[in-house]
Amino acid sequence: MDREKEIRRWSWRLRDLMREAGRTQRSVELEAGWGKGYLTQVLGEGRPALKVEHVVTILDLLGVSLEEFFSGLYDLHPGAGAAALDVASVERMIDRRLEELLSAEREERQRQLERLRAEIQRLRAGDRRRTPQEVREAVEKALSRELQRLAESAAKGGKKKRPKKPRPEEREPAAPREEGNGGEPE
Q1: CA–CA separation, 70 vs 150, rounded Å?
Q2: Which of 39, 40, 108, 172 is least enclosed by beta carbons within 10 angstroms?
Q3: Which of 63, 98, 102, 67 is CA-nearest to residue 83?
């Protein structure tokens, strides 16, 4: 199951329920004590991500039960004998789904960590003259530059960036000026 697709489904279902109840996102935000635009972020693809706490709060404010919410999402028919959902089964279903989502997220973070460790090993292997502290500083500097580049790129909307000016430590030293004649060489 695709995590992003499933979260979008939940978000759209919540939007539909708000519309059916004649409620705006802002009215729900105010009643929940959330700031302006918070719900737009939660139901969009921004941060913070949609959480079960958000779903339960919104449903409570709309007067919609978990059974109704999940019945509408997964074409379940409440009250159909043994197939009917009760709160405990919904909670179990949510717990299982969250565990699946968290597991996928943990796996991605583990892959990122492994790539970072491999890069550190590559740096260490490439220059045995460096002390562990120097390697750590080099890695931190590289990570910092990359994070800065990503932040700048995101701030510019992914536009091409101009070439960076060399940092002071990367510049060649200037020729010394001679004094007495306005800095002009003789």
Answers
A1: 38
A2: 172
A3: 67
Point out the residues of the chain with pLDDT beneath 70.
1, 45-47, 75-89, 126-130, 157-186
Place of tokens 């003259």: 129
Task: Write down the architecture of domain 3-85 according to CATH.
Answer: Orthogonal Bundle (1.10)
What are the angstrom distances between the C-alpha of 78 and each of 59, 65, 66, 68?
Answer: 17, 11, 11, 8
pLDDT at 47: 66
CA-to-CA distance for 138 and 127, rounded, in angstroms? 11
Question: DSSP per residue over 17-35, as a string?
Answer: HHHHTT--HHHHHHHHTPP
Closest of 22, 26, 43 to residue 34, by C-alpha: 26
| Cβ(53)–Cβ(105) below 8 Å | no
Residue 173 has what pLDDT?
55
- Residues 102 and 39: their CA atoms lie apart, in Å, by 22
DSSP 174: P
